[in-house]
């Protein structure tokens, strides 16, 4: 009997290079049903995610041996804590040697419910080729899954907006933390226009121990490689530029890339999340006293374990406060919080006054020089006239230059930049660092000598004055303070600010936020730094930015 009713639909699946294919079964010639192949748009906007510090999987250069694979569950964390518990300063310096590490592109991948190919194995292969194995699975893969789903299959269903877009993305941006009066609510036609393109989500890990400038060059090469994937003829999709989404230090990597004009031209727009845009004083605190909480077992319990790694890793030093941090106001203080006997930098030059200083308040006081190179990696490679300290000072000079480049008007942000961050009083952050204690009147505190240092927050000066590093006290996300997270304000197209807190001395920004109703999502308790992309407010800010950036693409117009 001839079959004439209903159509037979075949849905195309993707290959790793973005091309589509369909597998069909031949039917008898008596089957007259219409055969329909459902393909996605041939026009692609690649979305490339760049993780934060320690968010990339690293391995020993040229080998399979792991240097750093972030723990993805409680069992992993317990195992890693047990492993690092017995690593001393020498072990840590050897392990985290920038010259001995490279990206591990074969880390664990969480596929979730994604089905990009004909089966889960095919999907896994596609995600592996798109770099997902290079980034921290637990922190980032749920977000990457969300991006792919919401920008493709969940965008429009049966002619209507998907649930998330209908319920949330048509709302006033002010409810979600917008600080720009120029950005208005998306319309249904704005959102449906995204359907012209296919959004394919890539990830690019990087060596977070080497300089961010070098990682920027590596990212530029990766972006070109991605675009080359789409540069074929025939049935291949077409993509001319990418959208880059960053987390934390990934923002500094991207801004390093922007110094290469040709590489910058490959970028349609940028979304920065919780970027330490002007640095973070927490780096100083950790170099003087180690990390905090249970994480200190893995990262560093005190200065003796922190200094060998941080002092020899350019990218980690580049997260120190820039010269323009908080409008060049002092952030390192001693005495009392309300009446500091010492406040630095007082000459807009933290590189000489703090980072290179051998004084008691310096990043590495003279008495702590011995902590810099316990594995003798630097000492064994010195040239005539060099010392371990002079090599460190050379690094600082390069960091000052990098900071200055990123602080230069017109060269510090992509012209189409969006950003989001947390400013929450519950997420206490080192916006300033205070050596707290009683300082006798008329004491010339800057001239005192370091007579004792337990490398864990307590020091003694000249055998008389005892000071203790005070805890974090400013609003932020637990790592990046409000002053740094909101630094793109006035330069980015929009900065979405989330949380129950205000930014000191930023009256205009605070006034804009105050216009939102008290029950707005933006004004609820916010997220911590590492898990920011697991929060729906970061999802909203990212999707909104992509919706505003997409009309800048011209390769799918008129089709």
| Classification by helices and strands | alpha/beta
Mean pLDDT: 92
Shape: globular
- What's the count of strands? 23
Helix content: 25-40%
Note the gap between the termini: 41 Å
> Within the largest sheet, what's the order of strands?
11-5-12-13-16-23
**Contiguous uncertain segments of 5+ residues:** none
> What Rg, in angstroms, do the CA atoms define?
26 Å
Largest sheet: 6 strands, parallel
What is the CATH architecture term of the domain at 40-57 and 105-278 and 410-427 and 477-559?
3-Layer(aba) Sandwich
CATH top level of the domain at 40-57 and 105-278 and 410-427 and 477-559 is Alpha Beta
**How many DSSP helices?**
17
CATH topology of the domain at 40-57 and 105-278 and 410-427 and 477-559, what is it called?
A: Rossmann fold
Strand fraction equals 15-25%
Defining key terms:
6-stranded parallel sheet, 6-stranded mixed sheet, Rossmann fold, 559 residues
In a few lines, what is going on in this structure?
This protein has 559 residues and is α/β, with parallel strands linked by helices. It has 17 helices and 23 strands. The chain is globular, with a radius of gyration of 26 Å.
What does this structure look like?
The chain starts with 7 loop residues before the first strand and ends in a 10-residue tail after the last helix. It has helices at residues 74-85, 89-95, 120-129, 137-151, 163-169, 188-192, 212-229, 250-257, 261-264, 282-289, 303-310, 314-317, 350-355, 388-406, 482-485, 507-514, 536-549, and strands at residues 8-11, 13-14, 20-21, 35-38, 44-50, 58-60, 66-68, 101-103, 156-157, 160-161, 198-203, 242-247, 267-273, 332-335, 340-344, 417-422, 424-429, 433-436, 450-453, 458-461, 465-469, 474-476, 494-498. Helix 7 (212-229) packs across helix 8. A hairpin with a 3-residue loop joins strand 20 (458-461) and strand 21. The model has no long low-confidence stretch (mean pLDDT 92). The protein contains 17 helices and 23 strands. A six-stranded parallel sheet has the order 11-5-12-13-16-23, with helices on both faces. Strands 15-14-18-21-20-19 form a six-stranded mixed sheet. Among the domains are: 8-38, no CATH class; 40-57 and 105-278 and 410-427 and 477-559, Rossmann fold, CATH 3.40.50. With 559 residues, the chain is α/β, with parallel strands linked by helices. 28% of the residues lie in helices and 17% in strands.
């Amino acid at each position: 009997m001839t079959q004439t009713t209903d159509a037979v639909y075949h849905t195309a699946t993707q290959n790793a290079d973005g091309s589509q294919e369909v597998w069909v079964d031949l039917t008898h010639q008596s089957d007259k049903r219409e055969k329909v192949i459902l393909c996605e748009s041939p026009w692609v906007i690649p979305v490339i995610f760049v993780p934060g510090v320690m968010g990339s999987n690293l391995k020993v250069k040229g080998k399979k041996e792991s240097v750093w694979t972030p723990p993805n569950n409680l069992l992993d964390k317990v195992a890693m804590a047990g492993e690092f518990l017995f690593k001393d300063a020498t072990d840590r310096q050897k392990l985290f040697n920038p010259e001995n590490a490279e990206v591990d592109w074969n880390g664990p991948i969480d596929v979730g419910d994604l089905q990009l190919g004909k089966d889960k194995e095919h999907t896994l292969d596609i995600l592996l080729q798109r770099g997902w194995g290079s980034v921290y699975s637990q922190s980032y893969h749920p977000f990457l899954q969300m991006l792919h789903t919401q920008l493709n299959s969940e965008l429009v269903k049966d002619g209507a907006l998907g649930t998330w877009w209908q319920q949330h993305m048509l709302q006033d941006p002010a409810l979600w933390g917008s600080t720009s009066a120029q950005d208005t609510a998306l319309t249904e036609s704005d959102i449906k226009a995204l359907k012209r393109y296919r959004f394919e989500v890539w990830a690019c890990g990087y060596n977070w121990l080497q300089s961010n400038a070098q990682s920027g060059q590596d990212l530029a090469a990766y972006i070109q490689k991605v675009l080359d994937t789409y540069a074929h003829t025939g049935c291949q999709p077409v993509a001319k530029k990418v959208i880059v989404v960053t987390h934390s230090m990934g923002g500094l990597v991207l801004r390093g890339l922007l110094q290469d004009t040709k590489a910058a031209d490959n970028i349609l727009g940028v979304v920065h999340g919780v970027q330490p845009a002007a640095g973070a004083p927490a780096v100083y605190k950790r170099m003087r006293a180690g990390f905090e909480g249970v994480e200190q077992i893995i990262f560093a319990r005190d200065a003796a374990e922190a200094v060998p790694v941080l002092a020899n890793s350019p990218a980690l030093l580049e997260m120190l406060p820039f010269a323009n941090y908080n409008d060049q106001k002092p952030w390192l203080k001693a005495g009392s919080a309300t009446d500091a006997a010492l406040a630095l930098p007082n000459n807009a030059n933290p590189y000489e006054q703090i980072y290179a200083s051998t004084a008691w308040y310096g990043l590495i006081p003279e008495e702590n020089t011995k902590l810099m190179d316990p594995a003798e990696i630097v000492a064994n490679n010195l040239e005539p006239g060099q010392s371990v300290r002079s090599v460190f000072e050379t690094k600082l000079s390069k960091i000052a230059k990098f900071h200055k480049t990123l602080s230069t008007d017109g060269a510090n942000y992509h012209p189409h930049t969006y950003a989001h961050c947390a400013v929450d009083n519950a997420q206490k952050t080192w916006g300033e660092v205070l050596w707290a204690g009683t300082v006798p009147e008329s004491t010339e505190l800057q001239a005192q000598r370091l007579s004792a240092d337990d490398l864990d927050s307590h020091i003694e000066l000249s055998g008389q004055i005892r000071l203790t590093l005070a805890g974090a006290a400013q609003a932020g996300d637990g790592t990046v303070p409000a002053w740094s997270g909101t630094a793109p304000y006035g330069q980015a197209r929009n900065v979405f600010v989330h949380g129950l807190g205000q930014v000191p001395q930023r009256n205009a920004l605070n006034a804009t936020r105050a216009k939102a109703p008290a029950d707005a999502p933006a004004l609820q308790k916010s997220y911590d730094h590492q898990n920011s992309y697991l929060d729906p407010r970061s999802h909203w800010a990212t999707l909104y930015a992509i919706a505003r950036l997409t009309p800048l693409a011209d390769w799918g117009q008129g089709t």
